[in-house]
Amino acid sequence: MIKKITWFALLSALLAILIVGGCNLVTGTFVVDINVKNTDIVPHGTFEYFAVDLTTNDTWKNHKDNIKNVDNIGFQLWVTNNGSAVTWEFYADTTSVSHADTSSIRANGKQILAGLSLAPGKTYIDWPTSLIYLNSKELPTFKQWVEAGKFDIYALTDKLPYNVTIDSAHVIITVTAGP
Fold first, then answer.
1. pTM, whole model, 2 decimals?
2. What is the reported pLDDT for 1?
3. CA 163 to CA 84: how far, in whole Å?
4. What stretches of the chain show up as alpha helix (H) in DSSP?
5. What's the burial of 112, exposed, middle or buried (CB within 10 Å: 0-12/13-18/19+)?
6. How far apart are CA 80 and CA 118, in angstroms?
């Protein structure tokens, strides 16, 4: 009986040390949610863009050194389409690149979302809906940008003039981290 109590005490103490000490042997998923205000969104005539800076986010800062995989990037968007129905898409690129037009964005950026249909008027796109339009083949490149902590998002449409306004947005990134 004493052996069982000794083993139990030893295992309990070890578990307590691991929990209190911040065990790095556990893999888990965390979510980084970046709020993008309307004032952060820059209209450019034929597109809109906004910068995403993860380096100011506490969740990202706490886990940045342990990122193993970027699982998803999704968005929560409040949008106003002031024109006719359009197909909307998002591209991402590093902040060290400046694009003058949609041709440059499409040629050099990585398409994150594609095929979102926007009717005239106000539209709300929730996170699960945005994941339907996720271009998952670009996630490996996007992982590098998430690890670096900074990138830009570009919103484009399939026809001009660009009459869409992003009223506000959340960029929601799920990441697996571990030892």
1. 0.80
2. 54
3. 8
4. 2-20, 58-63, 102-108, 127-132, 139-148
5. buried
6. 9
